[in-house]
Design brief:
Its cofactor is Mg(2+). It comes from Blautia ammoniilytica. This is Probable GTP-binding protein EngB. InterPro entries: G_ENGB_dom, GTP-bd, GTP-bd_ribosome_bio_YsxC, P-loop_NTPase. With 208 residues, the chain is an alpha/beta fold. It contains 6 helices and 7 strands; from the N terminus they run ββαββαβαβαβαα. 35% of the residues lie in helices and 20% in strands. Helix 4 links the parallel strand 6 and strand 7. The chain is globular, with a radius of gyration of 17 Å. The structure holds guanosine-5'-triphosphate. The site of guanosine-5'-triphosphate (GTP) has 23 residues, from helix 1. The site of guanosine-5'-triphosphate has 23 residues, from helix 1.
Length: 208
């Protein structure tokens, strides 16, 4: 995908009516601080379109990013932040569930997990929940620059086991620092949303 324009079009709070965008959507879920905002900024080549900070638990809305007036990247609220009261967590959970249930144009759910750690109970719950709603989550293992190269495969295996991934599941290691994994994620989004790959990519393929 060549990013021509991008804007934060719709922000949904807990009680907001969810939009019917009519365009293909892909959603991003993950626990607070996993690097979701950083991933979205990296995908759209912006430094701070999605807010990032060292302070977890900020993203409490469902944010719809309009890409080229053709697809939406949907940023779901981060879960699992200990300081958020239980009642709030339940509301966010319901909001995410409502979205997964009602979107008619959701093509895929990307679940972000930190490559350094075994999946948490919340990660497992989220994975099972997305599966239960009829989607096969695509796993993005974030912050890969924080690991030595030799550790990456071992940790990916631990995530696969920890989440009990279904056979044939896709897992992509990613770093917002080095942009490793970015092109692979875009190629998948393009495929899932029926976008035509960039002309340069087609040319490269023909040259091979
Ligand atoms: N080294 C490194 N740091 C990262 C990476 N991605 C995110 N971070 C850092 O991790 C912290 C959290 O990143 P965010 O992108 O704000 O995480 P988030 O998942 O959007 O957080 P919430 O808003 O709490 O849901 C920030 O300090 C980022 O700079 C990465 O790939 N590599």
């Amino acid at each position: 995908m060549v990013i021509k324009n991008v804007s934060l079009d719709i922000v949904c709070g807990i009680t907001s009516k969810l939009p019917d965008t009519g365009r293909p959507e892909v959603a991003f879920a993950g626990k607070s601080n996993v690097g979701k905002s950083s991933l979205i900024n990296s995908l759209v080549n912006r430094k701070a379109l999605a807010r990032t900070s060292a302070q977890p638990g900020k993203t409490q809305t469902i944010n719809f990013y309009n890409i080229n007036e053709s697809i939406y990247l949907v940023d779901l609220p981060g879960y699992g932040y200990a300081k958020v009261p239980q009642s709030e967590k339940e509301k966010w959970g319901k909001m995410i569930e409502r979205y997964l249930h009602t979107s008619k144009v959701l093509k895929a759910v990307f679940l972000l997990v930190d490559i350094r750690h075994d999946p948490s109970a919340n990660d497992k719950m989220m994975y099972d929940w997305v599966v239960h709603n009829g989607y096969n989550p695509i796993i993005i293992a974030t912050k890969m620059d924080k690991l030595k190269r030799s550790q990456i495969q071992k940790n990916l295996k631990a995530i696969k086991t920890g989440l009990n991934l279904r056979p044939g599941s896709i897992m992509i290691p990613f770093s917002a620092e080095t942009k490793q994994g970015r092109d692979e994620i875009w190629a998948l989004i393009d495929e899932l949303t029926g976008q035509i790959p960039a002309v340069t990519e087609q040319t490269n393929l023909q040259e091979k």
